Amino acid sequence: MGRVYSLSDDRGQFSAFNHLPGWEYHKNMMGLPHVFLKTTKKKKHSSFSVTFTGQKIVLKEDKLKKKLEGYTQGRKEWAKKKKVKIKKFHKYEFTQTKQKMRIHIIGFDYSTPFLKNIKEKSIYLNCPDDSIIHFKAVLLPEHHKDETELINFIKSVMTCKLNQI
After folding, report:
1. Dihedral over Cα of 45, 48, 53, 59: its sign
2. Which of 81, 91, 115, 125 is the most buried (most CB within 10 A)?
3. Helix-strand-coil percent breakdown of the chain, rounded to 5?
4. 140-146 — which CB contacts under 8 Å span 24+ positions?
5. DSSP letter string, 108-132
């Protein structure tokens, strides 16, 4: 059994029946409100960020599948600018939490001139109040195995909502 893990800021909040062992939490790092880092043996870091978007939108599986072309094109433009080599795009995935909150997952693998075999996943959680939490994982090869743990963490979210500003 896990323990209840809660995270909140002025935009939103969630509680999950899980935690992220081995990931170190940082607030307001790299321009992101919530970042978890995991260090490799070579002192490089994989990251997992949590952003309460402040938006209320019902994400629908069929419409998101159609928008993947825009995501793919945007990543290709980013890669060209940054001199990054995209290895592959992952298929769109849809799943749910035990509380029937919708989870949408997209991502791709790439290499930079300095780092090889990076796996990036964007995960969108649609809360019961239709607010969106964006989770983003950037995993170095040493941490690819942690992807399932991160998805299970998101699947363990019991409650989430947008805070009234």
Report:
1. positive
2. 125
3. 20, 50, 25
4. 140/40, 140/44, 140/45, 140/46, 140/115, 141/116, 141/117, 142/40, 142/41, 142/46, 143/38, 143/40, 143/46, 144/117, 144/119, 146/22, 146/38, 146/46
5. EEEE-SS--SEEEEEEEEE-TTSEE
- pTM value? 0.91
Q: What is the CATH number of domain 4-162?
A: 3.40.1000.10
Encode the chain (165 residues) as per-residue pLDDT tens digits. 456 788 889 888 888 877 888 999 999 998 999 999 999 999 999 999 999 998 898 888 887 877 788 889 999 999 999 999 999 999 999 999 988 899 999 999 999 999 999 999 999 999 999 999 999 999 999 999 999 999 999 999 989 988 865
Q: 91 in helix, strand or coil?
A: strand
Q: Where are the domains of the chain?
A: 4-162
Question: DSSP character for 21?
Answer: T
